[in-house]
Design a protein that fits this description.
Elements lengths: L1 E5 L4 H12 L3 E6 L14 H6 L1 E4 L5 H11 L3 E4 L8 H4 L1 H22 L4 E7 L22 H20 L2 E7 L2 E2 L8 H13 L6 E3 L5 E2 L2 E2 H13 L5 E4 L5 E2 H11 L8 E3 L17 H7 L7 H17 L1
Helix pairs in contact: 1-8, 3-5, 5-6, 7-9, 7-11, 9-11
The chain binds NADP nicotinamide-adenine-dinucleotide phosphate (NAP) and guanosine-5'-diphosphate-alpha-D-mannose (GDD).
Length: 321
Amino acid sequence: MKILISGITGQDGYHLSKMLLDEGHSVHGIVRRNSQKTYGALEYDRELINKLEFYYGDVTDKSSLDLIFKTVKPDMVFHLAAQSFVQESWSNPEVTYDVNIKGTLNMLNSFREYTPEARFYNACSSEVYGKVSDDIQNEESRMWPRSPYGISKLAAMWTCINYRESYNLFVSNGILFNHESPFRGVEFVTRKISLAAARIKLGLQDELKLGNMDAMRDWGYAGDYVRAMYMMLQANEPDDFVVATGESHSVQDFVEAAFGYLDLDYKQYVSTDPKYLRPAEVQYLRGDASKAKEKLGWKPSITFKGLVELMVKTDLERLSD
Ligand code: NAP
Ligand code: GDD
């Protein structure tokens, strides 16, 4: 099959394109032109880059998407492109809305015009739950986003549902809880911690400043989560699914596990800095993926401790090379 991925240069783009190539598909990705000609997370794997087809485009530019859809004629579309950093969404709310809402609308319109028989995955987020009202969140839980990013993901998700219902398209939303890996962007808290712990161990850094260490997240492994995306597009019917581990840990837990793995006492290095606090915080997330388990047969494969160790170990190895 021919697969089109927006956001292929991100963490999930890396894991998804690798998995789809292994499944024997031909994988085509939309990339934004940048002055350094870098391929983001894909840069870790030059061999992978050579197996992919790239097209310059931007989800805010519908004419670029039209051309790509006409050229590729994909059987499956994974729409991952986003301004995905929650903190940034307060300083750049217009960009966040343009890319995440209008960008999704543009992708849907090109999809509907050129490949209406194909299947479309939209990357929604647990940030839509925001101020949670339940101890564990499923597809029916109240949605009360707490950031421009969360609002944009809620609007994009409902746009997808509306297109599915209005035009009888195969469009599915994955409401994915946080998922991490050694290919995670360095501004996100897990990778910021794993990289800092490795650098401190090697004497390259002597402190780590963080924001709210009491925030709790349901952290899973990105490799497992892209498998869930693929399963959603192989199902008989389009639908919306929560993908999560069902466990919640604090940022403090992550710090302790990461530094502990390297036999470091985190108290000597880690402190808080108000500049990393958010105007409104999502304090707690824990997802219930029962529907994905029952209907798709999906389940996670890596534990919280295993994830932390994988990230720290990989950062240590990369720095030691
Ligand atoms: P990421 O690493 O930040 O990647 C974002 C991707 O979007 C990059 O390839 C980026 O390209 C691309 N992009 C940004 N603006 C674009 C534009 N205007 N036109 C075209 N491409 C654009 O994010 P991720 O962690 O892989 O997440 C993938 C998707 O899942 C995102 O939609 C995110 O919001 C959502 N999500 C992520 C998580 C998570 O925990 N990782 C959880 C729930 C939902 P550049 O390389 O050019 O910047
Ligand atoms: N980034 C960051 N940096 N976060 C920090 C820091 C810090 O120094 N200190 C504490 N935190 C807290 C944040 O306040 C937040 O509560 C938590 O750590 C996680 O922050 P991020 O790793 O930036 O992720 P996120 O939960 O805001 O968003 C990620 O997950 C969403 C799914 O729930 C992103 O991947 C989103 O794109 C995704 O939709």
